[in-house]
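Teaching note: in complex prediction, the entire set of molecules is handled at once rather than each chain in isolation. The prompt given to students was simply: 'Predict the structure of this complex.' The entities are:
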Amino acid sequence: MREPANRRIVLAARPQGLPTLQDFDMVTAPVTPPGPGEVLLRTLYLSLDPYMRNLMDPVGPGYAPPVAIGATMVGGTVSRVVASRHPGFAEGDLVLANAGWQDHALSDGSDLVPLGDLAQPSLALGGLGMPGFTAHVGLLDIGAPLPGETVVVAAATGAVGSVVGQVAKIRGARVVGIAGGSGKCRVAVEELGFDACVDHRDAHFAERLAAACPQGIDVYFENVGGAVLDAVLPHLNVGARVPVCGFIAHYNDTAPQGPDRRPELLAAVLQKRIRMQGFIILDHYGPRFDAFRREMGEWVAAGRVKLREDRVEGLEQAPSAFIGLLQGRNAGKLVVRVHAD
Amino acid sequence: MREPANRRIVLAARPQGLPTLQDFDMVTAPVTPPGPGEVLLRTLYLSLDPYMRNLMDPVGPGYAPPVAIGATMVGGTVSRVVASRHPGFAEGDLVLANAGWQDHALSDGSDLVPLGDLAQPSLALGGLGMPGFTAHVGLLDIGAPLPGETVVVAAATGAVGSVVGQVAKIRGARVVGIAGGSGKCRVAVEELGFDACVDHRDAHFAERLAAACPQGIDVYFENVGGAVLDAVLPHLNVGARVPVCGFIAHYNDTAPQGPDRRPELLAAVLQKRIRMQGFIILDHYGPRFDAFRREMGEWVAAGRVKLREDRVEGLEQAPSAFIGLLQGRNAGKLVVRVHAD
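The expected output is the structure of the full assembly:
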């Protein structure tokens, strides 16, 4: 049977601020059959993640090259091997891949991770994959919360934040989430088991956050920046740890917003002896990933960590879903189901 | 013999920006004799340090209370015990004290450190005391330079920076100083043995710093902030460490200067996996101080660390000397000789 044509979503223009649908284009071409040593993949699930915004700028973030104009948007996928000329992979294998925003892709196998027969394979893009690993490394290796300490995490129902909070609870911390909207806050407390969650859209956000952290904040998992960081900063305790995972509030900035807040940050770091440490999850794979997968697999199987997924149907929905992600419109890990299995 | 009257310099007004002479006042009163358990101290040397500026603001830096209006300016001193009703101290003892900006002070002994008969007692306020200890802890415990790595330190001829650079050289690092003026830069290279020193007043400062750090920057000892941090940031290497000791460029800020540079700092911390950690030297005394004193004493005795002192004569000169310190006018550790011994 001939494979149908391959649709791929390419970067059409560099976004000014928040991306628009016009910054993407869909291009169709015949599927290329695999050459010697290659496999042909069909995308089942495509992961959409905030870091992708950084790859759309002309100068990339350093740890990965920017996407060229006209090139396929990059992204992690769960894919099915549909043809193989690689000795290590057989037709029908389920793999974790980096196929990007497209129906099909070729791979030489070097970037593929066999997934066996995972009950819910899309979780390999979420809590059991890169976002869950990001939460695990950032919280445990850098944040290192002690029992009874207070951990604050924003984007509390997002792919990373939801895992940060639940793992911190397992480690005995008091966990305060920050999320956009009362619905998300309810999910964080009632479903994910956070001790409290504060709505950053609330007019009294800063006071509510303070009230939710009567013992101050010992670990702030930074994935937002902006006004959330403003509200957190005065409540950081002496010796607080701030793993810096991202700062989605600024990804769409085209110019500095408002007066300089760097001296105030330096003052807090100094006076409170704060340890602020950035990390890029790509650095941490290897044995550390195996340890994560074992532990997280057990937690998920035991129901101690709940993984929420926000699933969108169809590759053509990827651009609008991605724009929504940057606006906080997703509820859980955002994945696109590209092809039914 | 009666002690003469005690002169003390008090905080007359809270400075707006850079302090002026009008923010200080000199008050004279009779010397109070020691009560039971007390000693009377005569100040030989008064230390002037940048942190004192922070104690002049209405809200203190957290680790120490602000100086009240009308209260004596605080400060470390080398003092002589001139009368004692304390069993642990005898008339004539030389001690490290916190007598502040005055001729005489009473102490219950709890904050005094016996100095024995140090050849140059004022060094107990500099390289063998708090500033040297600050350099030692910040550089070695937080910065942790490896042989061959590049260490950058500003205020390169100052009390802390000069020791940071020399200790980094002993540890095998390449050391690049930053200082204000070509004279100071010459001192850093020719006298203190830095590999290079860049004048931050030079119109091509940023380019010259880049040229002096061809392998990038692995440790940036932050004691300045502002334009120096701007120039350093693009050259920090992946995995760089930034001990945050102070940021004298901002101590006199009355309002934010210019657009927000916090997002840019967060981006650098994230993308380069930087560890930025504040420290307050008061936290580190105890056994760590003994280790420092032993090691630094050997280095100084062997001529491996040279300690420069900028000595001002007379208590009445303290305010103008302190204002000069905040403007970078000192050359080495600034001390006031209050009384000849």
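Point out the following to students. Residues 287-301 of chain B form the longest helix (15 residues). The first strand of chain B starts at residue 6 and ends at 11.
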